[in-house]
Design a protein that fits this description.
The protein is mostly helical and 223 residues long. It has nine helices and no strands. 64% of the residues lie in helices and 0% in strands. It comes from Streptomyces capitiformicae.
């Protein structure tokens, strides 16, 4: 005998229309907030350096502190993200322009000029550059590779003194970045004058041997 237990006609059973998913809208809002934070942080860090209070970044980006911390749990995480994006962007542009220059010496000089010009407008970037050679070790390695590429083109053309190494040029760029930050734009062009003096010293016209670089065994230790 057929059971009639709970035999409610299908058409009479209550139905509930599914609610449309809200995830895509929330995801879009989160991406907009993240982009606003990064943009605001880039401007604030460039002007004031890495010690700035993150509350100022939150105010500038138009988000609350809770939203900022959901995207970036620490200021160091935010600073690393912002500087790596900026560093990679201008470093790539400077390299592309340099390799497009047929004159290998001019390519090297232009790379230094463009790099230092960008650093002159970014205090936090210079701070990181002096510490690790860039926002991250990957950025420093990228910059070192580009300098090595530009350097190897110059001796072949007889323009760069042959005893100059990639490490020499990388260290020179680091030192000049500090000069850029120290002198700023007062008086205008002061760091460019020092750059030209430095580049002139790298010319193959100078034949007096350079001092040998200190080995690790010769490096003073603090312990």
């Amino acid at each position: 005998m057929p059971s009639t237990l709970n035999a409610v006609p299908l058409a009479d059973q209550p139905t509930t229309a599914p609610e449309p998913p809200a995830k895509p809208a929330r995801r879009a809002d989160a991406e907009r907030n993240r982009a606003a934070i990064i943009e605001a942080a880039g401007a604030v860090f460039a002007e004031q350096g890495g010690t700035v209070d993150v509350r100022e970044i939150a105010r500038s980006s138009g988000v609350g502190m809770g939203t900022l911390y959901r995207h970036f749990p620490t200021k160091d995480a935010l600073l690393a993200t912002v500087l790596e994006q900026q560093f990679t962007s201008w470093l790539t542009a400077a390299h592309q322009r340099a390799v497009a220059t047929e004159d290998s010496w001019q390519a090297l000089a232009d790379f230094f000029e463009q790099t230092l010009s960008n650093q002159a407008r970014n205090r936090a970037l210079v701070e990181s550059y002096a510490t690790t050679g860039g926002p991250t070790h990957a950025c420093a390695s990228h910059c070192h590779s580009i300098i090595d590429d530009l350097r190897t083109r110059c001796p072949d053309a007889g323009l760069l003194r042959p005893d100059v190494t990639t490490a020499d040029l990388f260290l020179l760029l680091t030192a000049l970045s500090q000069t850029v930050q120290t002198t700023g734009d007062s008086p205008p062009g002061r760091w460019r004058r020092l750059l030209r003096i430095s580049l002139d010293g790298l010319s193959s016209r100078n034949t007096e041997p350079l001092p040998e670089p200190a080995s690790l065994a010769d490096t003073p230790r603090n312990d």
